[in-house]
Amino acid sequence: MDTIPPLSSPPWVKPRLSIRQILEPASIAVVGASDSRAKFGGRIMYHLVHHGFAGDLVPINRGRPEVLGRTAYATLADVPTPPEVAILAVPGETLVQNVAAAATAGVGCCVIISTGFAEASEEGAAMQAEMVAIARQSGMRIVGPNCMGLIVPHHRMPLCSSVVLDTDRLLSGSIGLISQSGALMVSVFDRASTDGIGFRHCVSLGNQADLEICDFLEVMVEDPETKAICLYVEGLKDGARFRAAAAACQAAGKPLLLVKTGRTEAGVKSARSHTASLAGSYDVFEAICRETGVVLARDPDDMVRAANILVRHPGARSPGGVGVYSTSGGGAGIASDRVTEIGLGMAVLSEATRAQLGEILLPPQADNPIDLGGRKAPDSLDITKLAADILLADPAVAYGLVVLTSMPFFAEKTRLIGEVAKASPKPCFLALTPGAAADRPRAALREVDQPYFDRFEDALRAMELVAQFDRLRAEASPMALRPAGLPAIPELPDGVATEGEVKAALAAYGVPVTRESFAATPEAAGKAAAALGFPVVLKAVSRDIAHKSDVGGVALGLRDAGAVAAAAVAMQATVAGHLPQARIDGFSVQEMIKGAAEVIIGARYDPLFGPVVLVGLGGTIVEILKDVAIAPAPVAPERALRMVESLRLAPLLQGARGMPVLDVPAIVDAVVRISWLAHDLGGRLIELEANPLLVRPVGLGLVAVDGRATLVG
After folding, report:
1. What sequence ranges are listed for the domain ATP-grasp (predicted)?
2. Which of 6, 168, 376, 520 is deepest in the core (most CB within 10 A)?
């Protein structure tokens, strides 16, 4: 994922303002203020005046004595009391001098909307660095540059030039929004307002030259009025800080939802191992989010809508499925298919619930999904509310999904359903499928303050995110405890380690490995094989070969000393043909091991988040299958087990298709131990893997038959 390099300038002077004061300042200066809404400074002034900013508003304009009825000053230095926050709506070429003027005048924070800095060119990056240096030396903070500012509805502070603020209200709420994209922030704000969703704070950060995501995230976690937090992330400045803030959010029971760009990044370049290519930067980011309960969304509107539902239904929910309620048989059928396809599962209703439904609905409809059209009760009895109440009361229903089509008394019945959904402790997702015909029903739902969706798929995606939050909350792992008997310091050399060196480290950490002997020559290899016992495996020993089997560096099933010596001679020639520059230091003669499945366990050090561990099925073909799970290291056994169980091919470990039940506890133990090896190697580690490990039937363990590692050196 994208990272933002730390600044090399001196530490900050004590900040003049706290983050909370920046979000809710007592005074604001608009540098470049204007009466004209055709200009950035004019729009910012208009929005602050129009929406009633209650603090002191100070226009800075050299040519006018007042702007929009406020006394104007030629420079910041002329203002009697230094403004807490200044927003700079000035040309980019004058920005550095304006930042310097703000610092000299005692301003606490500059919000910089100008563009053309680190995101644009080396020259722009130099200007940005100069601005940050000025701020550092004075204790002034910077939001931006290349941002759209701040919107804080409860403080009546639209510190932003966007046209979405040309409205009569700023809808206040309890969701915090932090975005690196300013245009995206205001678009999400506008869409949410249309949906009736308000925000506590909206922050646009742009280049994060100074203040970054975590500065505001930490404040929102601590703010009791912020009930959920939404992030749009392009790059993080401090992975450890983000992880700690996310964990604090999780501990507080506060939903944290996130959209991240760069999901398809190719991963680590010049990878020597499967681990490095499979545990790319986004994969690691995803694992960190999973570990800290962060919900990953793909669409920012879905993210905010799901956050709104979670704020409305904050309690922990018992595991369960989806109860589908529709006014159409077709709607019920489509919803049931889609719920099943995304893996949430249809709730299996109790016999008592089905009996209650059977009193008002015909037998086919008296179950999940409910088709309200299959009524059994007389027309004089309106069963709209009753059927919804019965369905949502069933203990197996964790989420309600309502698909409404046009029907008689559309608005009235929709209102009844909305009232049931609003009163239910279970999240209900209402989708209105018609167009203009549903305008009155939409108005009815707004009147009862029940969220709704105009497209069924929108409702489904929001429900997926809410279910993801519930699942992550239920899966919180205990702290990883160090197994007894592990060495204090891993004995692995810098640079590329040989298979023997890696397996020695694995064995020291309690991971079973094959018996083997090193031989310097083909003849010595034959003698070593005789001492070890046949059949054997022969491998080339070389720090220059990443994948021995790809270049003829492995021979299997050798049954006598002569065959071993001959294979060694042939191996030297074959490897030389593939890799003329590779140096073969000798041969490893190993016992021949059989197993029922091949597993890879690997680790690497992520520059942003530290060590991570990976487990997958497929062994040497794992890059083809791409069936892996990743977690930050070290891991507790409970997390390691969930990693194994999450693999698509995990049923093969449980005796599928007549195969024996395999030793999953041994896999879990190996994952835990290798995760501690990665933890202990720390920043020395580039990548390490045991691959394959051959897994035997339950109770018989596993054995690592190959390994490789690269360390800093």
Report:
1. 503-540
2. 376
- 586 half-sphere exposure, CB direction, 13 A CA radius: 16
Task: List CB contacts of 38: < 8 A, sequence separation 6 or more.
Answer: none
Axis crossing angle, helix 300-312 with helix 456-474, rounded to the nearest 10: 60
For residues 13 and 162, membership in a common domain is answered with yes
Q: What is the CATH number of the domain that holds 672?
A: 3.30.470.20
Answer whether residue 460 is part of any domain: yes
Q: Are 705 and 694 in contact (CB under 8 A)?
A: yes
66: enclosing H helix or E strand = strand 66-67
Cα–Cα distance measured from residue 204 to residue 186, given in angstroms and rounded to the nearest whole number: 9
Do 262 and 311 touch, CB atoms closer than 8 A? no
Q: How many domains does the chain have?
A: 4
Given 562, 591, 620, the domain boundary residue is 591
Integer CA distances (angstroms), 581 to 150, 522, 554, 565, in order: 59, 20, 18, 23
CA 94, CA 367: separation in Å to the nearest integer? 69
| Range of the structural domain that residue 28 is part of | 2-309
At 215, the pLDDT band (50, 70, 90 cuts) reads very high
Say which CATH number the domain at 544 has: 3.30.1490.20
Q: What CA–CA distances, in Å, run from 420 to 308, 413, 429?
A: 18, 11, 12
For residues 569 and 667, membership in a common domain is answered with: no
Assess whether 530 and 627 both reside in one domain: no
Reported as a single tens digit per residue, the pLDDT across 359-418 is 999 988 899 999 998 888 777 788 999 999 999 999 999 999 999 999 999 999 999 999
CB-CB contact of 696 with 706 (8 Å): no
3-state secondary structure 503-534: HHHHHHCCCCECCEEEECCHHHHHHHHHHHCC
- If asked whether residues 574 and 530 sit together in one domain, one would say yes
> In whole angstroms, what is the distance from residue 85 CA to residue 101 CA?
13
pLDDT of residue 10: 52
CB hemisphere CA count around 108 (13 angstroms): 19
Q: Tell me: do 149 and 251 sit in the same domain.
A: yes
User: What CATH number did the domain enclosing 451 receive?
Assistant: 3.40.50.261
| 483 DSSP 8-state letter | P
- For the chain, state the CA radius of gyration: 31
For 597-630, write each residue's pLDDT tens digit: 999 999 999 999 999 999 999 876 777 888 999 9
Q: Is there a single domain that holds both residue 299 and residue 177? A: yes
Phi/psi for 452 (5° steps) reads -145, 170
